[in-house]
Specification:
mainly beta; 13% helix
Length: 146
């Protein structure tokens, strides 16, 4: 949630800069590439004989953000990927590994276009204890002239 708020603030500031600028300056860009520790609890509904259980996970999350700004638009791409994230079921003690990737990419000028892909998997030791979540969405918001 904190990342989303920071990213939303960044986009807002950059959007105002783009709208107010018409200098014809070349595009500028920057990239932030970081790895940080993360602890989280995830409910795995198929674990514990189908009753489900919380799995406490910890490890590192790789976070990559690239932003390009030019005269009339902003392009942002994010990529998040677990690295060595593993955990244990609170009830059963079963071991789990977190895999997958989350990507978000959007463009904005006088409208916004965004594609969000989230592939998040918690893989258990037995086939029936694996949880998978995939979400892909594309949205487009455009400005209409009056």
């Amino acid at each position: 949630m904190k990342k989303l708020l920071v990213l939303s603030g960044l986009v807002t500031v950059l959007s105002f800069a783009v709208v107010s600028s018409s200098s014809g300056a070349p595009a500028s860009s920057f990239t932030v590439n970081s790895v940080f520790p993360i602890d989280l609890a995830v409910f795995v509904p198929c674990a514990n004989g189908g009753v489900g259980e919380d799995v406490l996970l910890s490890g590192n999350l790789h976070d990559l953000i690239h932003v390009t700004v030019n005269d009339n638009s902003v392009h942002v791409k994010t990529h998040d990927q677990p690295q060595g994230i593993s955990g244990t079921g609170v009830v059963t003690g079963d071991k789990y590994q977190a895999t997958g990737v989350t990507q978000d990419e959007f463009n904005t000028s006088f409208g916004v276009e965004e594609t969000f892909i989230n592939n998040f998997r918690i893989i258990g030791q037995a086939p029936e204890t694996t949880s998978s979540c995939t979400r892909t969405s594309t949205s487009r918001l455009t400005r209409t002239e009056r």
